[in-house]
Every structure is written in C-alpha cells, then in structure tokens.
DNA sequence: AGCTTTCTGTACCCGCCAGTACATTCGTTA
DNA sequence: TAACGAATGTACTGGCGGGTACAGAAAGCT
C-alpha cells in the first residue's frame, strides 16, 4: 500500500522533496487548483517521478501531504500540547500556536483547509483528515481531564465538550485569519477559548 | 455590471431557480467540483441560460450564490441577530443558529466554505465573501456594544475583540460540523463563546 | 398580425489535467 | 564490466469543463 518498491536514499530524498514542495503549493492554492504539472515544475521533477513515488496518483499524494502537514502542525505545538496540566501551560500553548501560524508564509491552517475542501468527497480523504483532527483534539481533552483530576477544574466539567469548544475556536480563528489576512482573529479566538476554560476553574 | 439587459418575469423566475439549485449543489460539492453542466442538469437548463443570465460566466454566478447564501444565513438568525441586547437574546440567537444549521441537508456553513475555498484567489471573490463576513460580525459587535453601554458588560470590555472571538468560535464549530457530521461541535463552540461573553459580565 | 427582444436548446471548440507508455540514465551488486 | 532494478525525462492520450456560436421557441409591444 505505502511503497512496495524499495527506495534508495536518493529516492527517499526526492520523495521528501516532492512532499515538502507540494505541501506549500497546495497550502497556497488549494488541492483543486494545484495540478500535477505545477508540482512537477515546483520541484524540478515531472509526472514520471510523481507516479513513481505515488502510484495511486494525486489521491495518494494528497494523503501523504495531509500526514506531513499534520505532523508539522502538531510538532509546532510541542512540548506544551502534551502537557496541558497547568494554567501556565495553556498560555504557553496559546503562544506557540500564535507563533507558528504567524511565521507561515500563508494564512490559515493546512489541516483545516484540507478538511473543508475534502469533507464532501469520498471517505478516503475525509476520514483521513478527520482522524488527524481527532488526534489533535484528543491532546486538548487529555489536558483538560488532567486539570480536572488535579482539582484545577470543577468536577462537573465535561472535558469532551470543553475540548470541542476550544478546538472549534482555534479553527474558526484560523479560518478568519485566512479571510482577513491578519493574526488578530486567531488571537481573539484563543483568548475567548481560554476564558471559557477559566470559567470552569474550581 | 449586474444585468444591463431587462428581465421578464419568466426570466427572473428562471434566474432565481438557477441560483437556488446551484447554491445547494455548490454547498454539497464545493465550487471546484461543481461544473456548469452539473448546474444545468440540476435545474433542467443548459449552458445557454447560464451564460444568458450570468454573462460573466462561472465567476459571476458564484458571486450571486455568495450574496444569496449570505442573505439566507442572516435571515435565519433574525430577529435576534439585530437585537443582541440582553443575555436572553444571546441564548435565543444561539438556539436559532443551531436550529438553522441543524435543519440543513448538508453540514457546514455556505459562507465559511466559500471563504476557505476562495480566500487564496483573486480579490474579486475573496473580498466579496470577506465583506459578508464583516457584516455578519458587525451585528455581534453592535450587540456587545449595546450590552456594555447598558451596563451589562464591564467597561474594560473590547467589543471588537470579543465579537471576533465569538464569531471565530461559531465558524470553527461549523467547520467541525462538516468533518464530524454532527451538530455537537457547533453546540460546544457556541456554549464556549457565550461562556467567554459571560466572563465579561459586570 | 408583425416585429423585436428575450428565452431556451444544441452543438461545437479549445485548453487543461490526470494518467499512461516508454525510453533513458544512474547506482548498486556480482 | 555485465546486468538488473531503481530513478528520471518526455511525449502522448482521453476526458472533462468553461466558454462560444447559433438556431429556434416564446413573449412583449405597436
């Protein structure tokens, strides 16, 4: 499924180069508006290599891009994303999110963009992206659960609901970031989300 | 620009039929994946009529769809959207939003979907959609301002920032609604947003 | 009625793009 | 060096989709 043909070091490097460049192109122009020829031109390769490394065609490539971007985005939030156990950690996490999306050349979230573009399509892509979203959201929920267990949050707090709300605020902020070409919506969204979190303080 | 040629009643009806059906198709499948032939098939017309009523081609049609959907969405939130002066009005508004998006055949928000799909393109569409978003957000800000003026919210409340955060939560909830095929994310997002609003109560 | 304008349907053109076929070069192993 | 598979490059195909041209039906106006 992934790559039954063996990859030489050179091949692996080329594959990685394709994924990285394609990720940027797709982020800037969307899946539908990025052709395989564009990706070939952007990487100094051609359709030969593309179908050599991704025999499944554009679909397989897009799935690889989703994986790559998900990893990239989650890594940018570490180590705080894994240890949302204190109020300070949440602030730090907020700052790391702002810093990451502020340093991108383009506005918006790669995962969110893919999610909204592919949600109406076959489950093959939609479920894949949804799984990444679930994983991401799971980190928030785990942090909230630990906060509740440690007594920082009230007993009647529903971690699932609260994580969902915070996650939604985050992605809404990123969506508005795209349309308004400013980081302010994301900042306001995260501030609001943390205010909602604090409203459950013990 | 709009339609210099005069429209007979029959023509106006056909045009409206096209817009309505096209709006549903585009909402379900996205702009990029909806062809003019699809729209023709969905309305019992052909490209002849399409280019007759929208001489500017697909771009002009999409702009008409954006206007139509924006009106539809805002109307669904009335009359509470115009009178967000009391805590109860905000609750009612929340309920009307949930009811509207819960009654749709498809998940997600028409405006949000267009926004994320067209944001990277020429300003022609991006600015159009952004303007609708701004108008919508303006209603929230106006309500917050009146709440502050009436003493329900603290003096140090920033209506712009708070409206931005609530608006972001709303759209994030709608985005997750799309990927998770459930109304829960929207509910959680709005609950969180109202909690953030209440945290500014005087 | 007769003319004009709008409305509707059909057939076509052209460019783009995913995918294919195949030739060629490179690298590794024997 | 011979040989094999991986890596790369190029040329082609088939369908799809936006857009155009144009012919016929319908409806307003005098």
Write the layout of secondary structure elements.
The structure is a homodimer of 202-residue chains.
Chain A: H1 9-29, H2 36-43, H3 47-53, H4 58-76, H5 87-103, H6 110-118, H7 123-149, H8 159-180, H9 184-198
The structure holds a DNA duplex (30 and 30 nucleotides).
Q: Report the count of strand segments of chain A.
A: 0
Secondary-structure content class of chain A: mainly alpha
Radius of gyration of CA atoms of chain A, rounded to a whole number: 19 Å
Largest sheet of chain A: none
Let me know the average pLDDT of chain A. Answer: 94
How big a fraction of the residues of chain A is strand? under 5%
Reading the helices and strands of chain A in chain order gives HHHHHHHHH
Head-to-tail CA distance between termini of chain A: 49 Å
Low-confidence stretches of chain A: none
**How would the global form of chain A be characterised?**
elongated
What can you tell me about this protein's structure?
Two copies of one chain form a homodimer. In chain A, helix 5 runs antiparallel to helix 9 (184-198), helix 7 (123-149) crosses helix 8 and helix 8 (159-180) packs antiparallel against helix 9. The model of chain A has no long low-confidence stretch (mean pLDDT 94). By secondary structure, chain A is mainly alpha-helical. The first copy, chain A, is built from nine helices and no strands. Chains A and B meet through helix 6, helix 7, helix 8 and helix 9 of A and helix 6, helix 7, helix 8 and helix 9 of B.
């Amino acid at each position: 499924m992934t790559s039954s043909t063996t990859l030489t070091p050179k091949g692996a490097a080329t594959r990685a180069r394709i994924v990285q460049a394609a990720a940027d192109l797709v982020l800037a122009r969307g899946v539908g508006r990025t052709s395989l020829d564009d990706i070939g031109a952007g990487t100094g390769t051609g359709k030969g290599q593309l179908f050599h490394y991704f025999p499944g065609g554009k679909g397989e490539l897009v799935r690889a891009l989703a994986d790559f971007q998900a990893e990239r985005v989650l890594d940018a939030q570490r180590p705080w994303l894994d240890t949302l156990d204190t109020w300070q950690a949440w602030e730090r996490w907020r700052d790391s999110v702002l810093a990451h999306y502020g340093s991108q050349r383009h506005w918006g979230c790669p995962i969110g963009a893919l999610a909204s573009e592919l949600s109406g399509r076959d489950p093959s892509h939609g479920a894949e992206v949804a799984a990444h979203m679930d994983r991401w959201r799971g980190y928030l929920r785990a942090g909230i659960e630990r906060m509740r267990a440690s007594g920082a949050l009230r007993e009647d707090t529903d971690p699932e609901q609260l994580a969902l709300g915070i996650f939604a605020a985050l992605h809404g902020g990123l969506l508005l970031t795209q349309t308004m070409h400013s980081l302010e919506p994301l900042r306001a969204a995260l501030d609001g989300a943390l205010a909602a979190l604090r409203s459950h303080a013990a």
